[in-house]
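Researcher: Structure for this, please.
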Amino acid sequence: MRWLLIGYMFLFIHRPFEVWPWLGDLRVERIYMLFTLGVWAIYPGKRFLPNVQHVAYLAFGTAVLFAWAMSPWSEYGQPIIEDWLKIVVFYVLLVTTIHDEEGLKHVAVGFLVVMAGYLLHSFREYLAGRHTYRMGIARMIGVDTTLGDPNSFGASIIFALPIVVALWKAGTGGKLGRWLLLGYVGLSSLCILLTGSRGSLIGLLVWFTIVIWGTKYRLKALVLFTLVAPAAFVALPESLQTRFETIINPEVGPANARESGEGRWVGLVTGLQQWANNPLTGIGPGAWRPANNTKIESHNLYGQLLGETGTLGGAAFFALMVCFWMNLRAIRRVRRAMPEWQNDLVFTLSSSIGVAVFLLLFMGNFGHNLFRFTWLWYGGFLIIARHCVARRLATWEPEPEPEPEEEPEAELPPGWVLHGPHG
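Model: Predicted structure, token format:
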């Protein structure tokens, strides 16, 4: 089942049926998932891990489906609902078949390998001349069409980077593994710069800051970073330099770049307005463009959440964040009590998922990532990690303290006799 799950990760992220359309005609993804479901049905080791976060996901899913059913623009939301339900199915397969630390390590490494292949393929296509021309610059895109947009592609890279830290701290792969992880970070940084995505660049800087702050040599690392970052910026083409300069000085870029930046705030305000008009269920998932008569999406998680799913969706999403926090806190409590376990993957991965959730919320200020697969996949990883920690505690026994050694009796000189104490 582990390999089948990793295979589906490849199909979902890399999407070869969108790269080579003849594969799409064969319905490769659907056939693969049906086969995986068939194997899962007869898999003897499946069971549902008890965790309150399942309830939060169920509540959020119910709110989303209800908002979609009540929406006057439900036909526009059908593709989004179908894709999101596929993610839910994968989540169920994940948490019912992966129950041990070895399996969790396998799927985490597999996820990063899939992402590495996706980035390498996209970078190769970029070198061959495949890109999109937008905002006055040539921008790198992913090889797929679903999440291949420069902003979505850059966000996918950002949200995968915390897994690198988890594998690094756990020592996965030894020295070779660390060199490969460094290469992955370098490739990820390069791809983000080539996308011209300002939000992804900010996310990358935030991630680097978090990583540097968590090291023992944070001052030296910060100095090195401040030296390398400007050099990387200068090495970029002038068009990309101007694009990223608009983050702090919007006047240097074209008018559409300024409008794009302002659109994030407009997305939030518009979402709040739609929430006020439809307080219970919002306008429905996928209805942003027809409901607001616009050609672009909200580009704001919070505007999208309240505007498209209303109070029901907002409350369920808040409950989901509380469950993330509860699971992370429980694992962190054990990690502090057992310092000898702190670099085991089950603990480093959960900590990295916490960073990923923070990045999802932070980048939600300039990206509509509400239905991104990362929320469910990382939630599944976290639930499995907490189960593995509970199993450790259940089987853990403290090492017995060594018994004090008895002092050897002193030898008496020849002819001496030792008498007991007198009464």
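Researcher: Any notable elements?
Model: The two ends are 78 Å apart (CA to CA). Strands lie at 132-134, 137-139.
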